[in-house]
Amino acid sequence: MTDFTEAERRDKCLLEQLQAAPMVTVLGIVGASGVSGLGSETYKQQFAFDAWKYPGVPIQNRKLSLRKYVSREEFRQSRKTIHPYAILEIQARVVESPALWSIPGFIDLNNPQGLLVDIVSPGSLDQELRARAQELQQPVTFHDPVFGHFTLNRRLNWYETQVSWAACAIQLSLRVDAGDDVKPALSVAHTLWQSQQDWNQRILQCAVSRLLPLKNASWLDQDEQPVTAEQFAANMKLTSVVLYPNGTFEFWHNDGGLFWKHAILVTGNLEDGPARADISG
Known about the structure:
It is a single chain. By secondary structure, this protein is an alpha+beta fold. It folds into 2 domains: 3-132, CATH 2.40.50.140; 141-280, no CATH class. The chain contains 6 helices and 14 strands. Strands 7-8-9-10-11-12-13-14 form an 8-stranded mixed sheet. Residues 99-108 have low confidence and may be disordered.
């Protein structure tokens, strides 16, 4: 079964579970990422409440992931209402304990899920939620002796700072895991930077070995001579590194015009090293 088919199966199972759940009223704070949509004629509209409650019940400080299937125009209009940190009153069908679902492959769903039915009010006056919304917009930082101060980017759910790698000024981003613990990703950063020269060479070699043949076969400008391995590596300029708690890394490069201003992305993990190199954007 392909990954795409498996994803469709899981999505269908989730939708069936949600449609069978009772409809309830929920008050919540839209997360920093706002609303997103995926589709062509029919969009799967998605957003999350970072904190939420049922009327008359204490606030829950965990995500409630919400979805609704809408037209293109409905999705466009929704962006005016479902914006970051908005407090909404909605009607939805909610399942709070996805870990209890007997659906193979749903181990990654560790927060409640909901099917949006309707937005009742785009501006709730609930004082508890208003206070929590203000808290969620305050800067969150921490200091590391090696890299300095990191600031939480709530929209992307990672901590970021400016650092140096192989004499290049870059952005270092640490993805936060489900428990909001930055230590696993920070440990990946320490390991990479301790052997920075070796890892830099391995990253460049991966990009050259996988993408140089593509460059010379399909991406040469008119009258452009084939590019050598040394020229290819010299054109790449690292711009950012994204690290994940499980040891996975992403090294993003400016292509220096090799692929007409597409980014060069090298991915891998600490155990196996650089594994893939792709052009992106």
